[in-house]
Write a structure and sequence with these properties.
Distance between the termini: 70 Å
CATH superfamily of the domain at 86-315: ABC transporter type 1, transmembrane domain
Oligomer: single chain
CATH topology of the domain at 86-315: ABC transporter transmembrane region fold
Strand order of the largest sheet: 6-9-10-3-11-12
Helix content: 55-70%
Length: 581
């Protein structure tokens, strides 16, 4: 199997094969031009300066100037074209990773982790992109220069060819030893970048918790430890890289001295002339400089290979929620839901989270789910929009198994308000229009009014155009929940899912909101996951979950009379008089 780096390059550089051929041609022309310059210089020294032939010097000087101009033009053109290829490669790779991550289910996202996915789509892509850039603008000419330099040097004087062999061998062995120590350090560095990103993300996201429990010193130590690990690894890599170029320069300078030393004997013996020795020295410099450019390539390849492996790991991961081969694109019923014998087990888990779940939902009726923490409520809700796929049984929406429905059609039927409401950077209006990009301002205000959010939005500077920070951190938890509910209302779906979406609201606001919702979405199917009995007491059907099973089903009064688990939940939240009311 091809190495991940090769696969990544083939996949995303294939569309630019024509541009790459252009870069190769330009680099070839620039390299050939550079190889002729020492020969022309030697001719000027031996046939012009030595013989005092001024016209010869002028004519060959003009030729050298023309060749240099050709080299400069070709090199600049190669750099521009190569830079364009590298930037487009990075753009396409980032887009491919982003598209793949969007197709992931919660299982794959949790497997990689958000910090690692961010690192792979930024730092890892940048490392491979830099390798492509350096290859296009520098490295392509290195093998041509090395081979051409050897040929031209042997034409100048084959007696000193052993110097070239010795210099190249010493250079290769020295660099090989250094690179062999770099590879494991590069692998460790990328992992430590992931860890640093994870720690930093946790600290920023949980800053309120950190301050509430006065854990700043502990978090500072945790960040310092992760930062120190990364710094130590980076310093180790830096020391190796810093020693690499002095080694190359030492070999280059020693080789130059050796050429001049032994070349003097060749001149004294009459085997070569001064110009030939100068040309030989220049060719040796070109050979070793091309080797030095190859060193830069070698330095970058290990880290780029590690990054490519991590990138391809994402691109090769298929979502556990597979789109149907022949999706159903039209449905006849609206707002109906049926779960039959549904079970779900997380990968590697010893026991299922859900077992034998069966119930139906219909338009105009409200179904509520209640249960203790860890009973499987949120997992059950995630099966409807296919955030996960049931491992047993079937989940049908509008009369069709969700695994057969076209994903866009399924999602258009559902308005989900998640347990942890999330708002995007932008404005109130831009966040609400996630539900419906074509919604008018009047529709937005109506949704805000139903969601009991109009008052605080009107009080915000700019109203609908008021800024919202990333994650909605500039509004309170209750305001975030109400804006998320308004976003779902703007969508106007056939099925509303409220996953513990009223937990941050006070009792009075909760009551007003539920009353407004009852009027607004009276004809749609509604699923409410709640912790407070007051939130779900008015539902047409209440499901009581315990250890992933339905242990009670009925109205509030029926369950209060017949179901011990439900009665225990009720009694833990209100007095007996309130429960009977």
């Amino acid at each position: 199997m091809k190495h991940p780096l090769n696969r990544l390059l083939v996949r995303h550089l294939s569309p630019y094969s024509g541009h790459l051929l252009g870069v190769v041609a330009l680099q070839f022309a620039a390299t050939i031009a550079s190889l002729f310059l020492p020969t022309l210089n030697a001719a000027i020294i031996d046939d012009g300066v030595a013989k005092g032939d001024t016209p010869f010097i002028w004519s060959h000087g003009a030729i050298m100037l023309g060749v240099s101009l050709v080299q400069v033009v070709c090199q600049i053109s190669a750099v521009l074209l190569g830079s364009m290829v590298a930037m487009r490669f990075g753009r396409d790779t980032r887009a491919a990773i982003f598209s793949r991550v969007l197709s992931f289910s919660s299982r794959e996202v949790n497997r990689f982790g958000a910090p690692s996915l961010i690192t792979r789509n930024t730092n890892d892509v940048q490392q491979v992109q830099m390798l492509v850039l350096m290859t296009c603008i520098m490295i392509l000419g290195a093998p041509i220069t090395m081979v051409g330099g050897v040929v031209m040097a042997l034409r100048s004087d084959w007696h000193m060819s052993w110097l070239i062999v010795a210099a190249v061998v010493v250079l290769g062995v020295s660099i090989g030893l250094l690179v062999s120590r770099m590879v494991p350090l590069f692998q460790s560095m990328q992992k430590r970048i992931d860890v640093l990103n994870r720690v930093l993300r946790e600290q920023i996201s949980g800053i309120r918790v950190v301050r509430a429990f006065v854990r700043e010193p502990y978090e500072a130590e945790r960040f310092a430890a992760a930062n120190g690990d990364l710094t130590g690894t980076a310093l180790a890599v830096g020391r190796l890289m810093a020693s690499m170029f002095p080694v190359v320069m030492l070999i280059l300078n020693v080789s130059s001295v050796a050429v001049l030393w032994f070349g003097a004997y060749q001149i004294d013996a009459g085997h070569i002339q001064v110009g030939q020795l100068t040309a030989f020295l220049q060719y040796l410099m070109q050979i070793l400089m091309s080797g030095m450019m190859a060193v830069m390539m070698i330095v970058m390849v290990p880290r780029a290979a590690v990054c490519a492996d991590r990138i391809m790991e994402v691109l090769d991961t298929e979502s556990s929620v597979v789109p149907p081969a022949e999706p159903v694109r039209t449905v006849t019923s609206h707002g109906t839901v049926a779960l039959t014998g549904v079970g779900f087990t997380y990968p590697g888990a010893d026991s299922p989270v859900l077992q034998d779940i069966s119930f139906t939902m219909a338009p105009g009726r409200t179904t509520a789910i209640i249960g203790s923490t860890g009973s499987g409520k949120t997992t059950l809700v995630s099966l409807l929009p296919r955030l996960h796929d049931a491992t047993e049984g079937t989940v049908e929406v509008d009369g069709v198994d969700v695994r057969r429905l076209e994903p866009e059609l399924l999602w258009s039927r559902i308005g989900l308000v998640p347990q942890k409401p999330y708002l995007f950077t932008g404005t109130v209006a831009s966040n609400l229009r996630y539900g419906n990009p074509d919604a008018t301002d009047a529709e937005l205000w109506h949704a805000l009014e139903v969601a009991q959010a109009r008052d605080f939005v009107e009080a915000m500077p700019g109203g609908l155009d008021a800024p919202i920070a990333q994650g909605g951190t500039n509004v309170s938890g209750g305001q975030r929940q109400r804006l998320s509910i308004a976003r779902a209302l703007v969508r106007q779906p056939d099925l509303y899912i409220f996953d513990d979406s009223f937990s941050a609201l006070d009792v009075a606001t909760d009551a007003r909101l539920r009353a407004a919702l009852a009027r607004e979405i009276a004809d749609e199917a509604v699923l409410i996951v709640g912790q407070r009995v007051s939130t779900i007491a008015g539902a047409d059907q209440i499901l009581v979950l315990e250890d992933g099973r339905i242990v009670g089903r009925g109205t509030h009064q029926e369950l209060l009379a017949d179901n011990p688990t439900y009665r225990e939940i009720v009694e833990s939240q209100m007095s007996a008089e309130e429960a009977a009311a």
